[in-house]
Give the backbone structure.
Amino acid sequence: MMKKHSIKISNATRYYPGAAKPAIDDVSLDIAPGEFMTFLGPSGSGKTTLLSIIAGFVTLSAGSVEIDGQDITNLKPHKRDLGVVFQQYALFPHMTVSQNVAYPLRQRGVSKAEIEKKVRHVLDLVQLGDFAHRLPRQLSGGQQQRVALARAVVYEPRALLLDEPLGALDKRLRDRLQLEIARMHRELGMTFVFVTHDQEEALTLSDRIAVFNNGRIVQIGTPTELYQRPNSLFVARFLGESTVMEGPNQGTSIIVRPEHISLKGLANNCSEGELSKPARITDIAFAGAHLKVGLAFAGGAIGSSLITAGNPLSFQRGEEVLAVWNRENQHAVANENVAADSAAG
Ligand SMILES: Nc1ncnc2c1ncn2[C@@H]1O[C@H](COP(=O)(O)OP(=O)(O)O)[C@@H](O)[C@H]1O
Ligand SMILES: [Mg+2]
């Protein structure tokens, strides 16, 4: 287990040269020692910029960065003692796997015997013990990224910063490496700051998620908190699916998650505490453990209902049904940022 470190960002703002609006706009954030913190948001929302601010590759126009209470705002990147992994593997092509991993240790003047021990240990950690003498081009993309991970943690940095490290991999490899990154985090006990635009990845891996939009963090919380209590339509749409209906006040919407909507025949009545709206079934998709039923409501709202596959569905596509949910499972959210919540990627 390594020593755990905290990261504190205070009122960080960054204008790129010539830009009219900041890429990061007055962002404050506390990352706890040993935490797995994820930056989630659409393309261009400022995730990479904030990660680069922590790493020291991008300087601040205003604000500060601290590690364990020490101000590092003006410290050069190599003096910050942070590990960094990007989407592109960026391994040295002419060096073997073990030479690549040994590189940061050699730079730090670590003894040969110590280097050998640490490289072996960390290659075992990423399950590449048998590949020590290969060159990067003799490895798959997933293996190369594991070498990059090994190289980034071998010198026991104060935190590991990962910018879409799985972005270049296909779905199956992604899932595998996701689990490996989760295991590395558990075994190392280090602070991880992880950037992704993939909500599933964020929900799977994170202790907490910071949701980015337009250079700001619009909500921060555990995956469960964000899913169950999104504070805006933007967050509700970015994390999971919902049926969105007009709210009681202007500027608010009512959302209900698919697992909270059940279906009844039109002739049925609701029980105490239940709410309902007629809807037409637009499609029924079998998704293994669940059936996902698409719904179209009068007035144009669309949504879905998730039915456990064990329960037989007595309705068909095109049928009119009653969508039913409990009052306690509907949430009013602000409509803010609707214009900005388009492109993910
Ligand atoms: N080197 C740069 N020079 C100028 N503008 C940049 C630069 N890097 C990013 N930006 C702009 O800053 C904003 C945030 O970008 P970025 O932090 O890369 O977002 P994300 O990682 O969420 O996709 C975007 O509008 C982007 O175009
Ligand atoms: Mg980015």
In short: The radius of gyration is 24 Å. The pocket of adenosine-5'-diphosphate (ligand 1) is lined by residues 16, 19, 23, 41, 43-49 (CB under 6 Å).
